[in-house]
Amino acid sequence: MADQHALRTDATGYPVSAALRWEEPPEGPVIVLLDQRRLPAEEAELVCTDVPALVEAIRTLAVRGAPLLGVAGAYGVALAAVRGFDVEESAAMLAHARPTAVNLALGVDRAVEAYRAALKAGAGARRAGEAALAAARAVHREDARASSLMARHGFDLLDELLPGGAHQILTHCNTGSLVSGGEGTAFGVARAVHEAGRLRRLWVDETRPLLQGARLTAYEAARAGMAYTVLTDNAAGSLFASGEVDAVLIGADRIAADGAVANKVGSYPLAVLARYHHVPFVVVAPCTTVDPGTEDATGIEVEQRPGHEVTEFPGPLPAAPEAGGAPVASVAVAPPGAQAYNPAFDITPPELVTAIVTENGVVSPVTKGGLAELCDRSRSGNGMMSI
Ligand SMILES: CSC[C@H]1O[C@H](OP(=O)(O)O)[C@H](O)[C@@H]1O
């Protein structure tokens, strides 16, 4: 399958992606984001000129998705270094902006280690900033390349699991080019199946409460020309029961060393349904999502988000797309004062995962040794250090 989604680059040959790019206008470097809170109604850009603005964009999911958070975090360190902000303080703010996606801390660490190494080698602030930016661009390129490789490995896996014909694939949350330096993770596999004429339908879980599926995956599926249908999360069970799901494809935010998978809340029930209905449950994630430092599920911090995301429907964001603009006139759907349980993720045990697809290949069944074999960072030098 031709790599028709090769990394896009700007006029200077540097990587750009739909969701995020680095720019250097006369007034100083900026990070330009496609504001995902406004999709699909508006393709509005959010320009971050400093690290607090980027941290706010991460916290409010203007920029989101584990692999892209790693890219954004690395560029955030570069922004601090090139603009003369406190790099160590900025790195700590960025690394802790959201707790579950290990990619974020890893991307921040890649850039801050490059910055520290340059200073240690005697470079001045400018050269050290350039080193941080070069590291961020490397993180961006590597993620884009990982996307293409995962699409290929995932396509081949589904061809093996579901030989012949066209398939109905269910996906949860959003895992396309809006979460990646390239074409995404699970959605990239679905796109490859579609481009081979083998996708009968993409079932798109709306993914309450922030509706990444209904808003973002539907947006990406429409642009890709896919046949897709949005469903409420609680309708998935009856879809499995009717035999209309041939495979589940999802992404991940952190994969523990034993293969436990943290992903958008609602993923675990899909894994149980898939097992009960003998349907492959496939996780697609780059090795930057695998965290050998977290032994198992007990070590994964699941982000708890504000209750109003459950008890209210947000109104439109203010006209000026400044970072963090609170929605205007949200509509309450629960009585005033209602409490809400709003974990952003849940954890699927490895025994319910049919396969994990990475850029280095597929592990199935999921084992600690198999994952380490594919994603051992000590070999590739992308080990995670403390920040
Ligand atoms: C493949 S990373 C996409 C991953 O990130 C999403 O979380 P969020 O929208 O909160 O950033 C979700 O877990 C997706 O699977």
TrEMBL record:
PANTHER family: METHYLTHIORIBOSE-1-PHOSPHATE ISOMERASE (PTHR43475:SF1). Substrate binds at R64, G65, A66, R98, Q212, N263, K264. Belongs to the EIF-2B alpha/beta/delta subunits family. MtnA subfamily. HAMAP family: Salvage_MtnA (MF_01678). Its EC number is 5.3.1.23. The keyword Protein biosynthesis does not apply. One of its GO terms (molecular function) is isomerase activity. The gene is mtnA. Keywords: Amino-acid biosynthesis, Isomerase, Methionine biosynthesis. The record marks C173 as: Transition state stabilizer. Pfam families: IF-2B (PF01008). Catalyzes the interconversion of methylthioribose-1-phosphate (MTR-1-P) into methylthioribulose-1-phosphate (MTRu-1-P). Pathway: Amino-acid biosynthesis; L-methionine biosynthesis via salvage pathway; L-methionine from S-methyl-5-thio-alpha-D-ribose 1-phosphate: step 1/6. Gene3D superfamilies: translation initiation factor eif-2b, domain 1, Translation initiation factor eif-2b, domain 2. It is an enzyme of class 5 (isomerase). This is Methylthioribose-1-phosphate isomerase. The active site is at D253. The keyword Cytoplasm does not apply. It catalyses: 5-(methylsulfanyl)-alpha-D-ribose 1-phosphate = 5-(methylsulfanyl)-D-ribulose 1-phosphate.
